[in-house]
């Protein structure tokens, strides 16, 4: 655990220099050296330990979401695990480990009210994977939004991803039959042999539609959607009556696909098969995160839940980490560990 | 009220001769003269009084829905108001008015278990409009699926249609601000001046997007969707946090629109604004239809709910009635009255 109070004179930062118009590239970011911020009343100063790299980071560049759209020329936004280095008279003592949007920088001043103190129990990285946004999205998406029941067939896309690999495992723990969709046979092999997925399908295969049908002989009851687009369309065509689509993420919404035939199944299939599609933001469930953490700690302890983590080292690797995530290169939770 | 027991020797029928591949035309139907059916055990014979003409009739030709896809060469399927003319030893006495899928024909044998006896109170046509599938879809769509609350902004598409004009009025009765979308200025004038809609937008206008925005200055909380397609996409872009889309009908799902940009907002907007899209089939709520009828009878009595009806006369007019409905020519509930 890091507890040394240490505030440097410089603050290494990654700036989102320009907003992407299409594909995001390393050139959209620049490295900068700013000042360690001086907190205003009610703010604390934190030092970043681990940055959580999420597909949502990309979405923030395009549109207003649950936060305003990002602005070019500012420090790249991002949630992470931080240590309080200046309590500034607030109720968060120095040394406290907090989760907050400190951005891609070594030091940040953030409102104490926006920093969530964490009782770290176990691996620090698990706070970003299982106990972070990805794990909580998997937990509440499967148990609450999807309301997965024993015996149901659950399909998870981006199944090797930060959220997907946990969502699939949680659905299995609830007694469902779980089919993963990923973009490489290597990932699929790992999902089946290491994480216990019942079946997998490669969405890059030319026989994807037929493969999915074969993998789901009883149709699909719950689809945990991390991608949208053509895969969403394909899955919707195989869904059962009273099916549920948990809209957790989308990597396709900002790229217009002229081949999309989504309008053929939305809303048609929703109506004829009484399907519910529901988006959710895991931050809305924050009051129940401690409960979910406790449940998942039990599964970690008895070996039923295996988290995959994909750490990068050093702040300058953050743009590369995000690009790798968006390109689908990674399995598990992508994160950036900072060291001084 | 029709109570005379009378079984003719011939049975005038409309046959769905061929399944449409694209636009439905009168040529897909033929008129035929069949035999009056002989009931099997558990079946009753009914005489058709009024046929309910619904957009769903068209959907049944394309895909399996809550019923198997229609088969070419058979009597066109369709729900309607009928009189029992042969009880055949069942618990439905002759003279009972029932609602059932008798098809487009004068006489049908239907399982007694599939015929819903109606306590007709008021106009017989109201059983098809307010108290039929259209009215029930409006009632349960607004009150249950959409859960419309006072002060919310509700948008209804196909607002002059059988379901839409009732959905809008029910939302207003619940205290919402209601904006109708229809395809002609004449319909919109009628919605505002006669049915009390707060505002209306013409989706054929070149300024549709801007008009919708202007008509909904506080965004949109609930969208009662009767059409899908481009209008659904446009409305989704204006929806508020925690918005709900009631997927009631779709006239566009069987025509592939290469211009569709639905994949830009589904699932992206659903996630970022926590939107729930939910399809429903009003037949699932049948146990609560009597309650809804009672509530709506109260609104009819005090003049707060004004049903629009669009009757055609004679069985041979049924194909024309459906084509008119699909072309958006009509306002209110389209139905065919049979007379001998």
Any key phrases for this structure?
340 residues; EC 1.-.-.- (chains A, B); alpha/beta; homodimer; 26% strand; 16 strands; ADH-like_C (chains A, B); 2 domains; seven-stranded mixed beta sheet; GroES-like_sf (chains A, B); Quinone Oxidoreductase, Chain A, domain 1
Task: Give the helix/strand class of chain A.
Answer: alpha/beta
Give the CATH architecture of the largest domain in chain A.
Alpha-Beta Complex
Low-confidence stretches of chain A: none
What is the assembly state of the chains in this entry?
Answer: homodimer
Can you count the helices of chain A?
A: 10
CATH topology term of the largest domain in chain A: Quinone Oxidoreductase, Chain A, domain 1
The CATH superfamily label of the largest domain in chain A reads: Medium-chain alcohol dehydrogenases, catalytic domain
Rg result of chain A = 20 Å
Please indicate the count of domains of chain A. 2
| SSE topology string of chain A | EEEHEEEEEHEHEHEHEHEHHEHEHE
The percent range for strand residues of chain A is: 25-35%
Tell me, what's the shape of chain A?
Answer: globular
Total strands of chain A: 16
CATH class of the largest domain in chain A: Alpha Beta
The biggest beta sheet of chain A reads: 7 strands, mixed
Largest interface pair: A-B, 44 and 44 residues
First-last Cα distance of chain A? 14 Å
Helix-residue proportion of chain A: 25-40%
Mean pLDDT of chain A: 92
């Amino acid at each position: 655990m890091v507890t040394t109070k240490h505030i440097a004179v410089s603050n290494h930062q990654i700036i989102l220099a320009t907003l992407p118009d299409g594909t995001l590239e390393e050139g959209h970011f620049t490295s900068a050296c700013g000042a360690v911020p001086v907190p205003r009343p009610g703010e604390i100063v934190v030092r970043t330990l681990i940055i959580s790299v999420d597909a949502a980071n990309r979405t923030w560049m395009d549109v207003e979401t649950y936060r305003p759209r990002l602005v070019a020329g500012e420090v790249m936004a991002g949630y992470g695990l931080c240590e309080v280095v200046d309590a500034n008279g607030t109720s968060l003592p120095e040394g406290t480990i907090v989760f907050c949007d400190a951005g891609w920088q070594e030091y940040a001043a953030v409102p104490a009210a926006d920093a969530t103190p964490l009782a770290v129990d176990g691996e620090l990285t698990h706070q970003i994977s299982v106990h972070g946004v990805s794990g909580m999205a998997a937990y509440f998406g499967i148990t609450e939004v999807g309301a997965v029941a024993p015996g149901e067939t659950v399909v998870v896309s981006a199944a090797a991803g930060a959220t997907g690999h946990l969502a699939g495992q949680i659905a299995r723990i609830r007694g469902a039959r779980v089919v993963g969709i990923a973009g490489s046979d290597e990932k699929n092999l790992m999902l089946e042999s290491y994480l216990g997925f019942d079946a997998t399908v490669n969405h890059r295969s030319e026989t994807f539609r037929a493969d999915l049908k074969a993998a789901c002989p009883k149709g699909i009851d719950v689809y945990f959607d991390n991608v949208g687009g053509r895969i969403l369309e394909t899955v919707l065509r195989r869904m059962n009556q009273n099916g549920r689509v948990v809209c957790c993420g989308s990597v396709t919404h900002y790229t217009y696909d002229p081949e999309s035939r989504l309008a053929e199944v939305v809303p048609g299939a929703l109506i004829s098969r009484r399907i519910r599609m529901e988006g959710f933001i895991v931050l809305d469930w924050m009051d129940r995160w401690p409960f979910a953490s406790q449940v998942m700690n039990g599964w970690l302890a008895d070996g039923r839940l295996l988290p995959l983590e994909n750490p990068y080292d050093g702040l300058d690797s953050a743009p590369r980490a995000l690009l790798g995530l968006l390109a689908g290169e990674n399995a598990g939770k992508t994160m950036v560990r900072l060291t001084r």
